[in-house]
Amino acid sequence: MYHLLPFRFKRLSNKEILVNEVGDFLLAPTGTARLIVDRAIDNESELYKDLFSNFFISQTKVPYLIDNLAARYRTKKAFLNDFTALHIFVLTLRCNQNCQYCQASSRVCEKHEYDMTYETLEHSISLMFESPSPAITVEFQGGEPTLVPHLIKFAIEKVEELNSRHGKKITYVICTNLINLRNEMLDTCLKYNVLISTSLDGPKFIHDTNRGKEGSYDEVIRGIKKSRLALGNDRVSALMTTSELSLNYPKEIVDNYIENGFSNIFLRALNPYGNAKENDWKSYYERFTDFFEQSLNYIIELNKQGTFIVEDFTSIIVRKILTPFNVGFVDLQSPAGIINSVIVYNYDGFIYASDESRMLAEHGDFTFRLGKVTDTYREVFYGDEVQKITKVWANEALPGCSECAYQTYCGADPIRNYTQQGDMIGFRPTSYFCSKNMKIIDIIFEMLINRKEEVLPIFKKWIS
Amino acid sequence: MISFQRFDQNSFSFTIDPNIFSEKVITKSLYNYANEYMITWEKVGDIFSIVLRKKDGVINQDLLKYLSEKINQDLIDYKTREIIFAETKDIRNILLIKALSNNEDFENIDLLKDEA
Q: Is residue B114 domain-resident?
């Protein structure tokens, strides 16, 4: 007679996926979970050995190797060790583009009242240095942050000055559309090893339509080339956002990334904010997962033919499924990535739990405003607002998530729940966050079940 | 197997003995249907009587057959999950304590002492 260890299960492609507490999985015949519970697994069978060696069952009430299992669990939750590592500075709301899907509430170029003041910036940096994390990423966002190059330069110099006392490992990132990238800015990037993160939505007709500006694509491509020349290829990355138009062009978008010298692409869905009706979003997300599957299949085909190109979201999920390591991706963490991993210092001197929460504030909803940059670290990071969020930020304790087989691969997003559904707990049957992630993880598992020989070597290459 | 009875063209009902499936198991099983169906239930004597009314559209014979099989399977699966949870609650707590607390606090506790 054996003892059970915690595990979850679901059915897919005529198999049962069993996932233990640290994310290890077994593919078994349908009905296996019930047989395990009924103690009907033959202890001479291969399945019994697999279940035993992968911590699904134990011969003793407490497994002899529980310390190993605990170490594995600790590793999966290692992102909690150092607390907030990503500090986003919204230096201005002003922007020089007119993106149709913009969620950043950007303002026209001339409105300087939407720029952060030096004083706010200094207070924000001081707070950032109180974070216990030994490695910190300083990310400049907007609007378009290169419209305020003096603030970027000031911030970096201030961080460097203070860090001579703190000794943290600092990484700088500028999120820019590259339209306004001047040589002086590139000099600063070169001097301080700054990473450039830009947006590229695919072919010219898609990119320009999404940006609402003719010629935007040409300027971005010019900016990418210029940045690569100055900083090196590996210092420039791009993110794509899948607009309604993009949904019809999976191959063209992937091909465009390859033509422009990228070896990775992140197929990102729109966030369900803005004025579109609920039914529009439902339809969008259904189409997005089809788009994702088509794109992923095409990417796998390209890899088989010798072109190395990684789909980043798949790579994150595969890493969670196939390795014991923690993956530092804030959207798929439990407890949630907000506050634990990311914090936002807004141009107006207020601090928010995430990018999305400061966007809510632009529409008059201050639910996720955590405090001011002049508050103390304790008031902001351990204050009442944070305490409220902590009650609902672990998917281990959320309805619909607590028994989901994909729990360890997914995450909790109270802000997304609140924005889409009106409360931080959320309702999984209508959650786009849930349906999208569930479908994508299903796609990946279906590949691992039905096309293992074909996809596993490619997935392994992506995560090695 | 729970048997379903059609109520009218957009609703059906079934009864469940709570000695077979607990209230918690029934709640969890029906959670995913709450988007498309209005769910009402009442206790009649010792039995739960449950009605699912489709919010939009009708329930044809094929759909009723599908729902009958699916809900029956869900009830069995959530009962299995309930057993797993009940039997592994303590070991999960021990695991989390060992994983996330300061190890020195627990290093002298022999968790295997009762096994012999």
A: no
Q: How far is B31 from chain A (nearest CA, A)?
A: 8
d(CA A55, CA A81) in angstroms, rounded, equals: 24
- DSSP-assigned beta bridge partners for residue B15: B49
Domain assignment present for residue B107? The answer is no
For residue A217, give the nearest of A108, A94, A97 by alpha carbon.
A97
C-alpha to C-alpha distance for B9 and A354, rounded to whole angstroms: 47
- How confident is the model over A345-395, as pLDDT tens digits? 999 999 999 888 988 898 899 999 999 999 999 999 999 999 999 999 999
CB atoms within 10 A of CB B58: 10
**Domain extent at residue B29:** 5-101
Nearest chain A alpha carbon to B111: A62
Please state the domain extents for chain A.
3-76
pLDDT digits (tens, 9 = 90+) for A284-298: 999 999 999 999 999
Nearest CA in chain B to A62: B112
In a domain, B116, yes or no: no
Chain A: give the shortest CA distance to residue B51, in Å: 19
- Side-chain half-sphere exposure of B44, counting CA atoms within 13 A: 9
User: How many structural domains comprise chain B?
Assistant: 1
Mean pLDDT check: name the lowest of A77-81, A308-312, B81-85. A77-81
Instruction: Provide the 8-state DSSP code for B10.
Output: T
CATH of the domain at B78: 3.30.70.60
Contact B91 A429 (CB under 8 A): no
Is A21 in contact with B92 (Cβ distance < 8 A)?
Answer: yes
B49-62, pLDDT tens digit by residue? Answer: 999 999 999 999 99
Residue B40 lies in a domain: yes
Contact (CB, 8 A) for A267 and A295? yes
User: How remote is the C-alpha of A2 from its chain's centroid?
Assistant: 39
